[in-house]
Amino acid sequence: MMHKNSGRLLLGSLLLSSALLVMADPGQTTVATELKSTPDASGSTVSQLPAGQAVQIGERKGAWYQVKTSQGEGWVRMLNVRLQSGAARSGDSTMSGLAALGQATRSNTTVATGVRGLSRKNLQQAQEDPAEVAKLNQYQVSADEARKFGQAGGLPAPRN
Amino acid sequence: MKKLHSTIKIAAILSSVCLLSCAEMRGMNVGGYDLTPLADAGDKLAKGTAETPVQEEEVIGRHMAGTLLGASRLSNAQQQQRYVNRVGRLLTLSSSRPQLNWHFGVLQDNDVNAFAAPGGYVFVTSGLLNMLDNEAQLAGVLSHEIAHVTHKDYLKAVRNNNLLGAALDVGAFVGSAATNGQTSQQEREFAQSVVNASKEVYARGLDKSDEYAADKAALETMTKAGYDPYAYVVVMQKLEARATKDSAMALLLQTHPSPTDRLEAMGASLDTMKVPGNVLTLDKRFAQSVH
Question: Is A67:A35 a contact under the CB 8 Å cutoff?
């Protein structure tokens, strides 16, 4: 019984810590910027962050990132922050960005027409593939279907 | 067939002459062909600003998309293809050209990139799609490509490449005169000139000013459609963070301004925009459809 509970506890804390890891992406400020108490320019200022200040980025609200820094916690303008190189932000509250952390490998697949892949060289040697273009039709969506899709997601009726 | 070739030659020679004096060719008749359309074509060439009819734009776009798909391939992930088409088509309804025959496609490639072709073709690689977290981020990427279509950036680029513009207009002239089997030969020659131009344009990329304009339009279109425009800023920050030493980013970086410069321009655009408080990111729907 005890054993089972502690197992659950361990699993729970593992899940929690991985969630925390995902929620805290490393970054740094690109210019001197104010650390605000709320995601709002009119919020009170917690401290003045210098350019190059290391931050741990949490959630985003509009134009603001929630951050933890050595100067305190609060909100900074997202456009004054750069994500740390090599650590693609997995933010906006899903874990899907983890997929991006894996190093990408090129997908050059040899087929009848030669090597495929979207490098400059491959594009210069490309041969037209009309059959592949025809395949696009099966996925095409009508304006009506798109409108319903937007409505289902809670988006406003399109206007242009 | 020989007659056709000589017709093309005559047309080509006349059209170059016509650059100097098109007006004089109007109403002229050579070997049974009325030269007025050729005079018009020459006028277009000389000005370099002619509007391409939508039908012609679609044909060019189909060959251009075919060239891109010749270098890559469509993903077999049908649910993703359908989802990207839904989001994309929805965005086009907030664009300036909602009536085009829009097609969207996911390319099976770990490279991080997105492309468009005239007439309403938009592509995103699986490598880029897998980096995204929500529907609003995807909307940003697709809106950028939709803007290249509505701004006719790729159309202008292929027309400016290797006198394709001349091939187009001469093609229209010969096409109107040719009969039976001759048309397909003429079409093949035309298609090949589009494919040749497309290869160069995709490898070289568009003008940097086109990219900045597409970013600005993307922010506006996605906001109009109800998506959070700052999600597109997140995409650009992800690209910025990945920019160094990543071979999957090579072509994108070769053909676009740096993500850092684009972020600065996007910041300036957002400063002048009114963003409603109720814009959405739609994380759950994206996760269910893509991952």
Answer: yes
Distance CA B204, CA B199 (A): 9
Tens-level pLDDT at each residue, chain A (160 residues): 445 445 555 554 444 444 444 457 999 999 999 999 999 999 999 999 999 999 999 999 999 999 999 999 999 999 999 998 755 544 443 333 333 333 333 344 434 445 688 999 999 999 999 999 999 999 999 999 999 999 999 999 998 6
Both tokens assigned to B22: 């098109």
Determine whether the interchain pair A96/B282 forms a contact, defined as Cβ–Cβ distance below 8 Å: no
Residues in chain B: 291
CB A116 within 8 A of CB B57: no
What residues in B contact A87, CB-CB < 8 Å?
241
pLDDT tens-digit readout, B249-291: 999 999 999 999 999 999 999 999 999 999 999 999 999 999 8
Residue B76: how many CB atoms within 10 A of its CB? 10
Whether B82 sits inside 8 A of A60 (CB atoms) is: no
Name the residue of chain B whose CA is nearest to A109's CA: B72
Name the minimum distance, in Å, from the CA of B1 to any CA of chain A. 24
> What are the E-state strand segments in A50-111?
54-61, 64-69, 72-77, 81-83, 110-111
What is the β-pairing status of strands A110-111 and A81-83?
unpaired
CA distances from B153 to A31, B117, B159 (A): 34, 9, 10
d(CA B139, CA B286): 11
Are B70 and A82 within 8 A, CB to CB? no
Distance of CA B222 to the CA centre of its chain: 19
Give backbone dihedrals phi and psi of A65, rounded to 5 degrees, phi first. -105, 135
Q: What tokens were used for A127?
A: 């041969």
Option in A100, A123, A154 nearest B199 (CB): A123
* pLDDT tens profile B8-57: 444 444 444 444 444 555 555 665 555 555 555 555 554 445 678 999 99
What is the dihedral sign for C-alpha B39, B42, B46, B48?
positive
Pairing of strands A25-29, A81-83: antiparallel
Q: Check CB contact under 8 Å for B71 and A109.
A: no
> Cα distance from A55 to chain B (closest Cα, Å)?
15
To the nearest whole angstrom, how far is the Cα of A46 from the nearest Cα of chain B? 23
